[in-house]
Amino acid sequence: MVSETNTKTIKWGIIGAGDVCEVKSGPALQNVEGSALVAVMRRNAVLAEDFAKRHNVPKWYSNADDLINDPEVNAVYIATPPNTHQYYALKVAAAGKIVYVEKPMALNFAEAQTMLEACQKANVPLYVAFYRRALPNFLKIEELLKEKAIGEVRFVNISLYKPLKPDIVGGSASFNNWRSQPEIAGGGYFHDLACHQLDALDYLFGPIIKANGISKNQAGAYHADDIVIGNFEFESGVLGTGTWCFSVAQTLEVEKTTIVGSKGQISFAYFGDHSVLLEIEGKEPQKFTFDISKHIQQPFIQTMIDELNGIGQCQSKGDSAARTSWVMDKIIGVE
């Protein structure tokens, strides 16, 4: 254990202090020991100042370069939509500062690779906000798999069916919602939500080595494809399938992932419900429930701070996050 005198405080600046920072991440950067939020930036100066005042952040900017070049800031959290992740990550890396970027890592795998290479060249850490890798429900799933509670894993299935008003992200799906604009989000709600699911499976089973699929725009409510069906294979030999449809009737709404093994199965959700259901042949089903902080990124941010101080390890970095971008590209047919 490193002595307290050898630890350092990571002083964060946020680029894009919007909705995701209000509860999920912003307060977590302030609450974690060894972490401090010292500056925020939004292009709208009024909104930047408002966020800073409400969250007791000392400095605010309306220009990203000013925040990146602030000598007090030694780490930057890029909380903008995916189309600017690469742009800002390269600037932060060039300034020699720690990079923490929202998910998905970038618009596509090519951009993710460019970010990873830039950070490696600058010798700065690159973290990506796949925070489920540190949540207790996913750590419980990892534990059950290591114990072979369901025997040998055969396959995993993801089912995510949502109506045209997807409550997971709030508001209706429309041409005005950036999540349904491919030039901003990289795709549609598949890119916004499936990245969490595929990344967590990468954590549980290791890299996906083969992936393919098909995507279509069936409802025509926006430009992005609204249905994606994918198949994938993990390096470990486990197979996977997924169906993501964002134009079903409300009565058909479902969000469930099932890991099937030789002796039983594990079922769980990613969004909202944090329970884990274990079903083993010949035994009563067992449900595990967990209390999750409303600042949901906090356990993950703690792992970042610990790693930066040499007293732990963070599980979501640029290399693993780039793999998830590669898988999504393969499923939707990007070469």
Task: List its traits.
335 residues, alpha/beta, Rossmann fold, Dihydrodipicolinate Reductase, domain 2, eight-stranded mixed sheet, six-stranded parallel sheet, 10 helices, 14 strands, 33% helix, 24% strand, disordered N terminus
Tell me the count of domains: 2
Are there runs of 5+ residues with pLDDT below 50, and where?
Answer: 1-5
The spatial strand order of the largest sheet comes to 8-9-10-7-11-12-13-14
What would you call the structural class?
alpha/beta
Question: Helical stretch count?
Answer: 10
Distance N to C terminus: 46 Å
Beta strand count: 14
Overall mean pLDDT stands at 94
* CATH fourth-tier homologous superfamily of the largest domain: Dihydrodipicolinate Reductase, domain 2
CATH domain class name of the largest domain: Alpha Beta
Instruction: Provide the gyration radius in Å.
Output: 20 Å
Task: Write a structural description.
By secondary structure, the chain is an alpha/beta fold. The chain has two domains: 4-129 and 298-316, Rossmann fold, CATH 3.40.50; 136-291, 2-Layer Sandwich (Dihydrodipicolinate Reductase, domain 2). The protein is built from ten helices and 14 strands. The strands form two sheets. The protein has an eight-stranded mixed sheet with strand order 8-9-10-7-11-12-13-14, with helices on one face. Strands 3-2-1-4-5-6 form a six-stranded parallel sheet, sandwiched between helices. Strand 11 (254-261) and strand 12 (264-268) form a beta hairpin. Helix 4 runs parallel beside helix 5 (109-122), helix 5 (109-122) packs antiparallel against helix 10 (318-332) and helix 8 packs across helix 10. It is globular, with a radius of gyration of 20 Å. The model is unreliable at 1-5 (pLDDT under 50).
